[in-house]
Design brief:
The complex is a heterodimer. By secondary structure, chain A is an all-alpha fold. In chain A, α3 crosses α11, α8 crosses α10 and α11 runs parallel beside α13. Chain B is globular. The chains are: A mainly alpha, B mainly alpha. Chain A: It comes from Azospirillum lipoferum.
Amino acid sequence: MRLEPRTDTPLALRLLAPVGAVAAALALCALLVAWTGAPVLRAYGLLFEGAVGSRFALTETLTRATPLILTGLAAAVAFRAKLWNIGAEGQLYMGALAAVVVGGGMLDLPAWALIPVVMIAGMAAGGVTLLGPAVLKVRFGVDEVVTTLLLNFVVLLLVSMLLEGALKDPMGMGWPQSAPVVEAAELPKLVARTRLHAGLAIALGLSVLLWLVDTRTIWGYENRAVGANPRAAAFAGMPVTRVMLRTALLSGGLAGLAGAAEVCGLKGYLTLDLSPGFGYNGIVVAMLAQLHPIGVVGAALFIAGIFVGADAMSRAMPVPNYIADVLVAASLLCMLVAGLLARYRLRRG
Amino acid sequence: MDFLSILLDILLSAAFWTAVLRIATPYVLGTLGELVCERAGVLNLGIEGIMTLGAMAGWMAVYQGADLWTGVLVAAACGALLGLLHAALTVPLGLSQHVTGIGVTLLGTSLSYFVYRLVLPQASTPPTVEPFQPLALPGALAQTPLTYLAFLLVVAVAYVLYRTPVGLAVRMVGENPAAAEAQGLNVTAIRIGAVVAGSALMALAGAFLTLSAFNAFFFNMVNGRGWICIALVVFASWRPGKALLGALLFAVFDALQLRLQQASGGVLPYQLFLMMPYLLSILALVLVARRASYPRALMIPYRKGER
């Protein structure tokens, strides 16, 4: 048996790949659920119901999907240019940090002016955080995978330090949390009496925008060319270093925006448990979407549904909610294989 | 007391060097494991998850009544299994080593947490086991058996890599797989073998955490140690002896930041000290990046007959 590249991958196959991968992951994790002794079909039924079964469940899933769309886009734009940004978690926290600093009452602006300022501050903080590793990569040839991963830990310690020091909320009863952002910096709710906020609209808008940039502009063309073959792109006169650096700013910026939107849309203030791994799960989102900006939305909704649904399911039966994390990891690995099968065909001999 | 005399006091105490050897152990094992994988041409970003699974599985086996050495073997076996998964996806299938590795890390970590929670649904304080005891030797030599095992393994890995045909084969598939194939070597099998063996070593690093350094399993207990090992491999230019030196040097700084943190008496935020290991690793990468002589075929999948 050997693998032979397909000359072109039909759209149906590209769409089928993530569906097949998810089905395979669900089947594999069914073994794990069965091992716990819980009835598998009922467990998955409860998971599905918990994710989309009611108005409340649906808005919770959409709320959860918001940061995942943004970190998914962050991974997608970076991976497209072969910039292995595994630091979205840290960039997200830097964005959140910028949001509580800028939106914490420092500026006395009306909401229509303050919200954009806070969001842009979050993006800038996230972007600059990735710019460091990107500069080290293009200037000194330092592998960005390890530097971005290590920076996640540095950023979390920095946030912890500030939450116990300069940014500590004096009214916070001694908890390590920041003071809340001012009311004018809060993102409006999309649906009354739910947690769903305007961050979702921003995320959806950006995924469409990025898709347009990617397919309709020279910028997007350069990004794709550099990702496909940096040497050929350089030979064709493209500014490879500049493309790398602006991709870093964009990718880090998207992750930073995720953090700012979580603070201003959902939590109101910053704590050390703002993100239950949104940065890392963004990588899974991007891979399930095959790095396509519109596909990211679908993939993020799926991952969000798994997490929200698993929480509901684990309340009803003795299956730990870490099953969601296992499902997500299994989906990523299955997706890699499914993507391979979409791009290659198996040949005998 | 001024800074220098504090520093001198720390460096002259036996307790400090005991701590250095203890802190170095998981880095020695993890770096060695990653080095074996990378020497065969496969980057293994699964290390963080493999260490977590090793820590959980080894501890769980002992908690369920197995003896300590059985726990160590269980950890190694679990690590080898995750390594086999990473190898199966990256070697014969040639999938992205970056993304597969992240996937293996996510899987190893989440599986560990899932199993731990399943067995211990409402453990608020983590239950403990009786860990390895330090040998009755004077001064800094009073280490647990796993530390001695780690240092012996450095010698063993160095010997195998440089003095045996197996080691030559491993290095060859990492440098020039086509030439290895021409010599009649099975590139796929050798790469898979190296990744499985390396992953077992990584899992030992995890087992050391729960069975020697501590006596319980905590969430997030690996805490980036795996990523630091990847930096240490680069720092060591893919050589076992230098890996040992790197891990020791790193442990000296880590032990020193702990002591200085205590000596500073809260003048500086403790987080600043805790950042040091990660920042040092980044600095080390920058310093050696220019003259890094990485295995030529690292991260390049090999398919028979394709160029």
